[in-house]
């Protein structure tokens, strides 16, 4: 039996067909077949190589010569690659395994924090150390800065800050600015978010902005220590609007640096919610806007007095203690602190004390506060000593009471200076005590600068005048009075009083915003 077969190899533009039939020989137990393909002599070079192979299947053998073209080679290589297993030098874990490992590590860190007393509930989603050892390093570093577990619980996100990448660069920068290491603990308690900041992107621009507000470089560290939150403000946000508003109401541009150095919290105050309502309320009370600006220049912290919580209730308390409403502007202008302290208990205590010392009537206490509002913060010991001094000078209780109502300042002056003035009054001026009862402000004038020179001039001219006529005027006015033919009674009876216009006068060039803490008064005005 003959079987015709057709063998073809396809190549571009090449088709070979051979009609020669293969010969098959059958045996009983063995089947052998041979197939021969003939090609042109140059085909081996162009199409591939001839390979002879034998195959044996279940006792059957066969020999065949075949042509492996370049295309069959590529197919063979492709198949063999599929069969070869990947290299086992290393194996990459699956994403699910990696996720499980992260969850397990985070659980260990959370458990570690709970053992220390730190609540990790707010840390979900925050990148944390993958090992307990690294977390321990962060906590130890925070402890060295003085922060406690309670501090960390107040702001647990601080645990997301790397010691080397975040904490150390920020603290080094603050130290180079001049922020004292002794203040770091309180600094971080108030504004722990600073540890997340970038020195170049976040901190340095704010410092440069503060310097542009005329805050001196040496004062920058003090500003940051007082108000570290300023490092988190936007440059063109609240800071710029609050400063612009203050300049708009009359705060001198050259005083802005000093104002912010004394009370940097202004930079975080919203104009519409805090500063403007405060200014407008005082203005409605009867204090001119320019006078308010001068008060802010000298005591900028008054802007921090809560309008609803402190200012309004305190002014209402003054009215309860027989202070006249018309006197409120003068009281606030003389002693701005009175609208920011816990006033009512002080009023009760001082009224009770003065009443026990000089038998002062409740109605007269209101007059005393109007003339010297600092009385609410005056030391109890000071008042007792001054009252005893006056009684020791020979004044009756009624006379002392009259003098205090007329000039409450005599309860706050330097006692040694008062003694010198009284000795001169008795020994040199030789006037009756009634003259001091009529004009107790005598004790408020300088002995060497005013009392002695004027007394000698009047004595030389042979004038007879009251202490008020002698002292209650400027040097220029006193020279004019010496040329009078008669002494006017109204000038004799004039008593010194606070002048609101004096508050609106331009500040002298001496106070060019140097950082100094102002004292409340030249005398012994100290609280208990």
Report on this model:
The chain is an alpha+beta fold. The chain has a domain at 307-389. Helix content is 52%, strand content 6%. It starts with 9 loop residues before the first strand and ends in a 25-residue tail after the last helix. The model is unreliable at 1-88, 489-494 and 509-528 (pLDDT under 50). Its main location: plastid.
What's the short story on this structure?
It is found in: Plastid, Chloroplast. This protein has 528 residues and is an alpha+beta fold. The chain has a domain of 83 residues.
Average pLDDT for all residues: 81
Fraction in helix: 40-55%
Tally of strands: 6
Number of helices: 26
Beta-strand percentage range: 5-15%
Ends apart, CA distance between termini: 134 Å
- Report strand order across the widest sheet: 3-4-6-5
What's the oligomerization state?
A: single chain
Would you tell me the structural class of the helices and strands? alpha+beta
Protein name: Transcription termination factor MTERF4, chloroplastic
Subcellular location: Plastid, Chloroplast
Region (Disordered): 495-528
GO molecular function, one term: nucleic acid binding
Structural key phrases:
single chain; 528 residues; alpha+beta; four-stranded mixed β-sheet; two-stranded antiparallel ribbon; 6% strand; disordered N terminus; disordered C terminus; transcription termination; MTERF_sf; MTERF; nucleic acid binding; transcription regulation
């Amino acid at each position: 039996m003959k079987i015709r077969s057709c063998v073809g190899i396809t190549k571009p533009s090449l088709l070979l067909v051979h009609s020669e039939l293969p010969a098959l020989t059958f045996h009983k137990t063995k089947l052998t077949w041979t197939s021969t393909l003939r090609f042109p002599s140059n085909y081996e070079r162009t199409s591939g190589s001839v390979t002879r192979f034998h195959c044996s299947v279940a006792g059957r053998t066969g020999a065949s010569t075949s042509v492996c073209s370049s295309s069959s080679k590529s197919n063979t290589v492709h198949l063999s690659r599929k069969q070869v297993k990947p290299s086992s030098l290393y194996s990459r874990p699956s994403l699910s395994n990696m996720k499980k490992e992260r969850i397990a590590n985070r659980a260990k860190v959370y458990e570690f924090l709970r053992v220390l007393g730190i609540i990790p509930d707010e840390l979900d989603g925050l990148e944390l150390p993958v090992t307990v050892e690294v977390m321990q390093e962060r906590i130890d570093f925070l402890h060295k800065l003085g922060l406690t577990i309670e501090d960390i619980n107040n702001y647990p996100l601080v645990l997301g800050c790397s010691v080397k990448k975040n904490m150390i660069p920020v603290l080094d920068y603050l130290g180079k600015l001049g922020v004292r290491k002794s203040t770091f603990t309180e600094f971080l308690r108030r504004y722990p978010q600073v540890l997340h900041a970038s020195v170049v992107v976040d901190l340095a621009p704010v410092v440069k902005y503060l310097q542009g507000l005329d805050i001196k470089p040496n004062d920058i560290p003090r500003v940051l220590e007082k108000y570290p939150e300023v490092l988190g403000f936007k440059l063109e946000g609240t800071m710029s609007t609050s400063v612009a508003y203050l300049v708009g109401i009359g705060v001198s541009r050259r005083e802005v640096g000093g104002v912010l150095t004394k009370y940097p919290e202004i930079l975080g105050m919203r104009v519409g919610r805090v500063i403007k309502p405060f200014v407008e309320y005082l203005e409605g009370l009867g204090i001119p806007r320019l006078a308010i600006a001068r008060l802010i220049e000298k005591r900028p912290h008054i802007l921090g007095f809560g309008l609803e919580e402190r200012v309004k209730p305190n002014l209402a308390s003054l009215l309860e203690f027989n202070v006249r409403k018309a006197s409120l502007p003068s009281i606030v202008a003389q002693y701005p602190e009175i609208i920011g302290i816990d006033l009512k208990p002080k009023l009760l205590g001082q009224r009770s004390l003065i009443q026990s010392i000089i038998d002062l009537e409740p109605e007269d206490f209101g007059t005393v506060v109007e003339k010297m509002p600092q009385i609410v913060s005056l030391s109890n010991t000071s008042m007792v000593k001054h009252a005893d001094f006056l009684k020791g000078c020979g004044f009756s209780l009624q006379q002392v009471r009259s003098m205090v109502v007329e000039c409450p300042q005599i309860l706050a002056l330097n006692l040694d200076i008062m003694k010198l003035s009284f000795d001169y009054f008795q020994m040199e001026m030789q006037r009756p005590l009634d003259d001091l009862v009529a004009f107790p402000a005598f004790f408020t004038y300088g002995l060497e600068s005013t009392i002695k020179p004027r007394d000698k001039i009047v004595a030389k001219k042979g004038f007879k005048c009251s202490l008020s006529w002698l002292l209650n005027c400027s040097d220029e006015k006193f020279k004019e009075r010496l040329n009078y033919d008669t002494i006017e009674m109204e000038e004799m009876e004039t008593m010194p009083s606070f002048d609101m216009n004096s508050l609106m006068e331009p500040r002298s060039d001496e106070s060019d915003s140097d950082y100094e803490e102002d004292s409340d008064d030249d005398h012994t005005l100290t609280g208990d």
